[in-house]
Design brief:
Protein name: 4-aminobutyrate---pyruvate transaminase
GO molecular function: adenosylmethionine-8-amino-7-oxononanoate transaminase activity; pyridoxal phosphate binding
Shape: globular
Bound molecules: pyridoxal-5'-phosphate
Keywords: Aminotransferase, Pyridoxal phosphate, Pyruvate, Transferase
Cofactor: pyridoxal 5'-phosphate
Strand content: 15-25%
Number of helices: 16
Strand order of the largest sheet: 4-10-9-8-7-5-6
Family: Belongs to the class-III pyridoxal-phosphate-dependent aminotransferase family.
Amino acid sequence: MDLRPNSDEARDIAYHFHSYTNPRVHEEQGPLIMDRGEGIYVFDTQGNRYIEGMSGLWSVAVGFHEQRLIDAATQQMAKLPYYHNFAHRSHGPAIDLAEKLIGMAPVPMSKVFFTNSGSEANDTILKMLWYRSNALGKPEKKKVISRIRGYHGVTVASASMTGLPYNHKSFDLPIDGILHTTCPHYWREGRDGESEEDFATRCAEDLDAMIQSEGPDTIAAFIAEPLMGAGGVVVPPVTYWEKIQAVLGKYDILLIADEVICGFGRTGKMFGSETFDIRPDIMTLSKQITSSYFPFSAFMMTEEVYAPIADEAGRIGVLGHGYTGGAHPVGAAVALENLKIIEERDLVANAAERGAELQAGLRGFAGHPHVGEARGVGLIGALEIVAPEGREEGFNPGQLGAAMNKHFLKNGLISRAMMDAMAFCPPLIITAAQVRDILTAVEQSLEGFAAEMQ
Ligand code: PLP
């Protein structure tokens, strides 16, 4: 690492407080500084090329240098660089995008509300649910059930819905009224002799028991990713969603599908809700909506969700909620062009086809002594890295993932360690040859890792 006082590395250490980083390790180790992108690749300042096997943060669907998105942003910047939707104001890109999203929804949706990040969208949804329950004269119906290892963001409310320890510890979270039910990870949570379907039944029974013990009239909604992403790429067990939805239906509890990772093709269908036959009342959208070229998010809701909120705001005189950057015209223009590209190039079908190749390749590593489980759907997958047999006790959680990550980087592949699971989530534009390149890099990395563990 270049540690001359004026180097980028030294200035990064001196001034830049990083997200999701151990600051004390960073002070010693310094940053990996990216310089430019091209297709599925990014290049660091030393000129090293990496396959961006995570699409940045599960988000760059169309790759790292899409001229059409650059042009869409530039043209909108030149025409109307900023406007808002407060006080009855609107603009073309917001109107076009709202109509487009409602048209794409897998179930009939009524309205779109625009926000700037996944966290902000989920935070806003919680506020809207509270508002709606008050509107309906059910002020006790405010709690939300999420899942252990679910990921819904990092604001006070969305971090509370997130079910991961490091998002709560020392932040004094979760706030009251947010509950976490069983994580549907069969490989980790399934009991001896329990079939996958029986495990799904148990997950639904756990949810039912939580609702009963809290009081069904106190629960406003259940929030979940169709397929858990940041919690470790957890594919729901067979029959899970059918059983969960039956429980929610019994108690009149709304279902929020957090499609922030799954949305716009990731699982091989346009939405994860389609892949897993989910009928949500609210959908959270972000990341691939603009391929992350612009910070942007939204949520859609059914008329049944919207109407009481609109009535209440009508009574009060105004909806007391909105963000300066919400429905940003540049973000909306980029989103429209990005969705056009996804449709024109049939990137959803590509995700299904290349996804099948990626999944078959990952499953091929399942017999490797350091792979506990290979899992995933479409272009999102993971390998669970395990310790050498008999030495399981010698490793702290996350240590194997961190060690594995170094081998991936050495082999030119960016993955992400979620504890000891290594995630793969490449851009939707990936080709068959590039999927093979990822699998070759994984194979070489596993060999290097095994040698290190000897
Ligand atoms: N929801 C899901 C499913 C996510 O994966 C994420 C981020 O990874 C979020 C919400 C939060 O999004 P943001 O980081 O834009 O706040």
